[in-house]
Amino acid sequence: MTPNHPVLGGLRETLATSRSASDFIEALESRLRQLVADMVDGRVLPKPEADALRTSVIELIAKEAIPKLRTRSPNDALRVLDKLKAYGIAQIESERPSLERERAARFPPPPAASWPEVAELRAVAELQPDVCELGSPVDSIYFAKELKDDGLLIPGELLEMYAACDGFDLSCLVSKHVPVFSLLPAVSIDASDEGDGYPRRAAVFQGGDEIRISVYRDTEKKKQWWLVYEYEYEPVAQKLFDLRELLRFGIQRMNAPAADALDDDLSWDKFFGVSGGR
Question: Which residues have CB under 8 Å from 39's CB, separation 6+?
Answer without folding.
Answer: 45, 50
